Amino acid sequence: MASLAEKRMDDAEDRPVEAGTEVAARPEELRLLEALLFASDEPIDQAALAKRMPDGVDIKAALAQLQAEYAPRGVNLVRVANKWTFRTAGDLSWLMTRESTETRRLSRAAIEVLAIIAYHQPVTRAEIEEIRGVITSKGTLDVLLETGWIRPRGRRKTPGRPLTFGTTEAFLSQFSLEALGDLPGLEELRGTGLLDSRLPSAFSVPTPSDDTTLRDDEDPLDDGDTLELLLAPAAEPEGGGGG
User: Fold this and answer.
1) Could you give the maximum distance between any two Cα atoms of the chain, in Å?
2) 149 exposed, middle or buried (CB, 10 Å; 0-12, 13-18, 19+)?
3) Which long-range contacts (CB under 8 A, 24 or more apart) does 166-172 make?
């Protein structure tokens, strides 16, 4: 039995054309892709889209064509964490100013911890403290966990088996990153003035990996870890200082 998508394409081909009407030479699969992406609440990966399309459709080429069509529009087709979704064009972000200013601001400590996790993941709380040079309060990690931008990955195979942390797809989506490799490197950070120009010559910025597979020095989380996180008390609001 033909799929709904295949039937729609057949109907489009059989539909009579009125005299004097110019028909745009636009492949029907682009309309199908638009419908699928528009109706989805979450970004969709290429494989999932391909399963919904008729046989023989070059999904990669179709996505590229649809992305090009939407490039000059108020809504763009973008890829986030290797998944596709429609987003407001970047130059129109000022339309979202009210929504942005109403969200809760992260403390400086939380921003520092988030940056360390993004670049150094998988990383433990003790390793974060070693990099920052100050003690990191549990509340700071709790706030970041609440945002959904970080997650516990596993447990380090060291005494005490501390939790390791990494970023999530929500982190990539929030900062409009296709992959962690798109995070700014050392020269970019220097160019924006975010790094002190007097840094040691041996200073380097690690290249983060998008590989979510547990490493050799990590054990998987168990049910008890999940329950512990769910039952943890809500984090108290942080001040603007370190912590």
Assistant:
1) 80
2) buried
3) 166/117, 166/121, 166/122, 166/123, 166/212, 167/117, 167/118, 167/121, 169/43, 169/80, 169/81, 169/83, 171/114, 171/118, 172/80, 172/81
Contact 150, 144 (CB under 8 A): yes
Q: Which of 199 and 149 is assigned the larger pLDDT?
A: 149
- Residue 27, classified by CB atoms within 10 Å of its CB into exposed (0-12), middle (13-18) or buried (19+), is middle
Q: Which residues have a Cβ under 8 Å from the Cβ of 195 and sit 6 or more positions away? A: 186, 189
Residue with tokens 């939790």: 163
Q: What percent of the chain has pLDDT over 90?
A: 49
Q: What's the predicted TM-score (pTM) here?
A: 0.59
Closest to 47 measured CA to CA, from 63, 67, 68, 69: 63
Checking if the pLDDT of 1 tops 50, the result is no
- The DSSP 8-state label assigned to residue 165 in this structure reads E
pLDDT tens across 15-52, in order?
Answer: 554 444 344 578 899 999 999 999 998 999 999 999 99
Cα 104 to Cα 185: distance, rounded to the nearest angstrom = 27
Separation CA 3–CA 57 (nearest Å) = 14
Query: What domains are defined for the chain?
Result: 28-93 (1.10.10.10), 104-230 (1.10.10.10)
Q: Is the pLDDT of residue 78 over 90?
A: yes
The H-or-E segment that residue 188 falls in is: helix 186-191
